[in-house]
What does this fold into?
Amino acid sequence: MTPETLWLVKLVMAHLLTDFLLQPTTWIADRRANKIRSSKLYLHGFITAITAWLFIGFDHWLVALVILISHILIDAWKSYQPDKLSYFIIDQLLHLTVIVLCWYFTFFDWDTLSSGFTDLTENASFWTISAAVILLTTPAGILIGQFTRQWREKIADAEGLANAGKWIGITERIIVFILVMYAQYSAIGLLVTAKGIIRFSEKDRQEIKTEYLVVGTLSSIGMAIITGILTKALIAE
It folds into this structure.
């Protein structure tokens, strides 16, 4: 690990530690109730900045100051938003963006970045794996959705079932793809067995619904396995 990367890891660790482990749920509730007038909002921002300062050294007080101000502003904005996953993700992305910018302008060497970017653009394995992962997300989901449409149209709550299975399918395909890349085929068998126990143990399930789930699951896992095998073959060339 390069010294530059270590600085970034320290800043991210400080964020994870203070934003999740050291922030009581009562502080979050107080912030939602009192918004910008919440004393816990400022206390949390102060603890976050101090932790980052301790991790990266006292010479970098400006980084701690930027984190202090930005963290308070971002959390204050979030306190006015609905308690939804989308706003949680935006909140975390904003915090991480500030961290990356502080790290880049304080610790990173442009020559190192330029060299790393050049190496990345010429790395065939990186581009092949990235393309495979992208294929296994929404594109694969759309293809499987079209393939299983004839079963889905006969199910009462088909739309809700499809929406629930969307992210499950993406996660499932990525996990299977990683397992194939590391030749852990026995683990794939365990994953399929576990999913079968969970999803197909429900009593009084409609036969058409069971067929839909079986076809969708096998299609999803099969596509991930084939993609993984093809990716390994392309990388090996």
In short: Residues 3-116 form one domain. The chain has a mean pLDDT of 85. The chain has twelve helices and no strands.
